[in-house]
Amino acid sequence: MLVSEILNSPLLLLLLPIVAFLYASVGHGGASGYLALMSLFALPITFMKPTALLLNILVSGISFYFYYREKNFKWNLFYPFAITSIPFSFLGGFLTVDSKIYKIILGTLLLFAVFRLLGFFGKEKAELKEINIKYALLIGAIIGFLSGLIGIGGGIVLSPVLLLLGWANMKQTAAVSALFIFVNSISGIFGFLSKGGEIPTSSTLLIGIVLIGGFFGAYYGSKKFNNIVLRNVLAFVLGIAIIKLYTI
Predict the structure, then answer these.
(1) What is the value of pTM for the model shown?
(2) Closest CA to 209 of 49, 7, 48, 35
(3) pLDDT of 43 over the 70 cut
(4) CA–CA dist 41, 105 (Å, integer)
């Protein structure tokens, strides 16, 4: 089946804005969700990576705007990760990996998204700690590289780290993750383009519906939104995608 035919699938066009809505509500761009859906609909990897990064930039930018407007953004929580993640994301975007390795890494990272949606990483620490700059620089480099390599922004990894280490509360985590995803996705896509890669023109067909979902998700998420049922459904969809990635 041609890419254009797959992109006209009513089910895909229905699920994409839902994914954008749910991810934006927690300060994410949704790349891991878009990649999961695209793998379920058997879209080629050459289409998946640049498209996920493009959509990620748009949705994470909207999400950051709403969380920033609610005064949840903390610069000191952002810059240590960004310093190393941006150049390493560019490097990851520049590289191309074998399709089997790509699927293994993507499936592993999708597990973070599932755990995040199911609330395993959703509890705030009673007392917040001061961020450790050295650890943050190292973590930023690792997340940035994997983000550029696979085509995600890294929020699904950064969010659990911030919460588990007690460096931020939920709202601060969402705000920092949104901007982190935004800058890494831009860096990753520049790395991808610099080696001669191209953004598929057909991916622009998805921009409108994803922006709508991202806008409303970011708006309600920044205002204190929580829908456990919808997030569990999305976690189930991602789980199916993980199984498919490991079995094909």
Answers:
(1) 0.85
(2) 7
(3) yes
(4) 19
